[in-house]
Design goal:
By secondary structure, this protein is α/β, with parallel strands linked by helices. It is built from 14 helices and twelve strands. It is globular.
């Protein structure tokens, strides 16, 4: 089997030759890996990691005021919704532009972005360059839950969910309208050569979901379903990145059309791999479970090998598992030798007999 065949068999619950593997990494970690491996390209790094996936993304072509490249040159982190962020990595919002909104008219009057700001003309060529060798993922990250928090402020948004729910619904709908149209443009251009629609919304803390099931089912799940339905209508599988403890929300995510969940932090509340496999292994493709901190950063290569074997022993039986770190963005401080050990061990012990 090649990588694409292996991944599709896993999603279709058909026999595969081995457990698929996926690597999500920060640009800094990729650069570090290139130096460690003595290679020139990110593609060479992914090949060395036995990564079965590749990803295509759209490009920004909208107004200069929201151009991430131009703003980065000015030292500004500004997204298409007008939220400026500052700090380490993706940073934190420096303000909440809609925190004082009190009417639907104000929501409608906000300068919402336009999907035409995204260039998809290259997507098809980018997806075809791997000649069907790898499972191709696409999709704007679509973190609409985070965007709503950034616009309204988290505490304010949670209060409004009870006191002015129509305000929150209107804001989230506008955000998802943008991501829906961007995704539709991508899939209309190249949906037949893409395998997986991949989005991300972090819904959990280390102790549990950031909201209860009733609020989730009212404000969040319908919009996830809307995006998943769009992907399914083009014949794609759906995968969602979610950090934290969110086991209580998994039934709602399944009902919303999510086929696979990625991240799965094994050392936090209610996220033990054996329990996830037992309770959801026949309903979800489970992607992750190798702890990106306690194992991949803080352990020795021998300890990484043992943790990988233990995880495979739990998650591999019956299929439906993709091995990856418990984060979609390996950090620069992660030892490259540990990551190599994880993937090489999975190659050695991940075969199905």
């Amino acid at each position: 089997m090649n990588s694409r065949e292996r991944v599709r068999a896993t999603f279709e619950r058909k026999p595969a030759d081995r457990v698929p593997m996926w690597c999500g990494a920060s640009p800094e970690f990729i650069e570090k890996s290139k130096q460690f491996l003595g290679v020139d390209t990110e593609e060479e790094v992914l090949v060395r990691f036995h990564d079965d996936f590749r990803r295509v993304t759209a490009r920004y072509q909208g107004p200069d005021a929201f151009n991430p490249a131009l703003n980065a040159e000015k030292g500004v982190n500004l997204n298409v919704f007008g939220v400026q962020r500052d700090g380490y990595g993706y940073g934190q919002p420096t303000c909440h532009p809609m925190i004082n909104v009190t009417t639907l008219e104000e929501v409608e009057a906000y300068p919402w972005p336009d999907a035409s700001w995204v260039d998809v003309s290259h997507i098809r060529v980018d997806a075809l360059k791997w000649n069907g060798e790898y499972a191709v993922m696409c999709g704007d990250w679509s973190p609409f839950f985070h965007d709503a928090i950034d616009l309204l402020g988290m505490e304010n948004m949670m209060i409004l969910m009870y006191e002015e729910p129509e305000i929150v619904q209107a804001v989230i709908t506008h955000i998802v309208d943008y991501y829906f149209e961007v995704t539709k443009r991508i899939l209309d251009a190249a949906g037949d050569v893409i395998d997986i629609f991949f989005i991300g919304n972090d819904l959990g803390s280390t102790t549990g979901p950031l909201m209860g099931v009733p609020l989730f089912d009212t404000f969040i799940a319908p919009h996830i379903k809307r995006l998943c339905d769009l992907a399914h209508s083009h014949g794609l599988f759906t995968q969602m990145h979610v950090c934290g403890s969110f086991k209580q929300l998994m039934p709602s995510l399944i009902e919303s059309g999510v086929d696979a969940l990625q991240s799965l932090q094994p050392n936090i509340r209610n996220m033990a791999p054996a329990e996830l496999k037992r309770d959801f292994g026949d309903m979800l493709i489970l992607n992750g479970c190798i702890d990106s901190v306690s194992v991949l950063i803080d352990s020795t290569p021998d300890e990484v090998r043992q943790a990988t074997i233990e995880t495979l022993n739990i998650m591999k039986p019956g299929g439906g598992y993709i091995l990856s770190p418990s984060h979609d963005y390996l950090l620069e401080e992660t030892p490259v030798e540990n990551v190599i050990m994880m993937y090489d061990t999975a190659l050695e012990f991940g075969a199905y007999k």
